[in-house]
Amino acid sequence: MPTPKDYNITEFHFNKEQIRILSPERYDPLTVLENDTYSFTVKAWDNDNNKYVLLKKVFNPLSSAYDSKKIYREIALASKVRHKNFRCSDVLQDLKILYTSFALNL
C-alpha cells in the first residue's frame, strides 16, 4: 500500500500482534497504550505543538451501521468536552482509516 504524501507508517508489536499506524508527519507515534476489538490507541508526540497526544485508529469504521454510529457518537462527544487537558483536535478519515487525535498533558 503506497503511503499518502505527508504521512508516515510506524509499526508496533503489542500483545503478540503487529500494529501498523498511518499518521500525519507532524506526529511521532511512541507506544501503543490500548488495543481492543475495534481500535487501538497510541501515545505520540505532536511536533507542531510540542505536546503528547493520543492517536486512535479504528479498524473498518464503516463495516456496519452499528459501528459507524458508535464511532460517530464517540467523536461527537469528544468534540464537546471542554477541559484544559483534553482537546479533540483532528479527525482524518477515508473509507478504511479513521484517526482521532486528542491533546494529552502528562
From TrEMBL:
Instruction: Give the matching Gene3D superfamilies.
Output: Phosphorylase Kinase, domain 1
**Superkingdom in the source lineage:** Eukaryota
**InterPro entries named among the record's database cross-references:** Kinase-like_dom_sf
Name recorded for this polypeptide: Protein kinase domain-containing protein
Q: Provide the species name.
A: Panagrolaimus davidi
